[in-house]
Amino acid sequence: MIKYGLISKLDSFFLGKTMDLVVDNFNEDVINVTEIGVYSGATGSAIKQYFYYKNTPCYITGIDNNKDGEEIRFKYDNLIIGNSDEAAYKIPDKSQHLIIVEGCHCFPHVVSDFFCYAPKVKVGGYLCFHDTGKHIKPFKDFQHGDRE
């Protein structure tokens, strides 16, 4: 069984189903995936494994500002260190089959990530968000602001 990072079993299930849709909808040589907010890279590693088991090569880009201080252990095909809104220009428009936004979960950053990354998704691709909603409070849950 593939072990994802800091996401629940239910979220892992739905991420798997979304990746199945990507495989079913695109008959291309390489699937392009961008993960925003990589922490240690465990989810990125699992995504790579999932596509490998589906006999579908993928090129995965990770974007993280590395403010968590966690060592990024997974070797992304492309790792961009920086804030997601500042790194968006490095991803070509309409180039990504799947983008997973797992960065800062506060409302302003979620909206910013949507507007920055929606143009990056290929027609028929997927832009997924994790841990977003009005239940996320500023300065809590390791989001938005200095933990201290």
Tell me, rounded to a whole number, the average pLDDT: 87
Largest sheet: 5 strands, parallel
Distance between the termini: 37 Å
Q: In terms of structural class, how would the helical and strand content be classed?
A: alpha/beta
Q: Cα-atom Rg, whole angstroms?
A: 15 Å
Helix content: 25-40%
- Beta-strand content bin: 15-25%
Order of adjacent strands in the largest pleated sheet: 3-2-1-4-5
What's the helix-strand series?
HEHEEHEHE
Low-confidence stretches: none
Structure, explained:
This protein has helices at 9-25, 42-53, 84-87, 107-117, and strands at residues 31-36, 58-64, 78-81, 96-101, 121-129. By secondary structure, it is of the alpha/beta class. The chain has a 5-stranded parallel sheet, with helices on both faces. Helix 4 links the parallel strand 4 (96-101) and strand 5 (121-129). The N and C termini lie far apart (37 Å).
What's the SSE blueprint?
Layout: H1 9-25, E1 31-36, H2 42-53, E2 58-64, E3 78-81, H3 84-87, E4 96-101, H4 107-117, E5 121-129
Parallel strand pairs: 1-2, 1-4, 2-3, 4-5
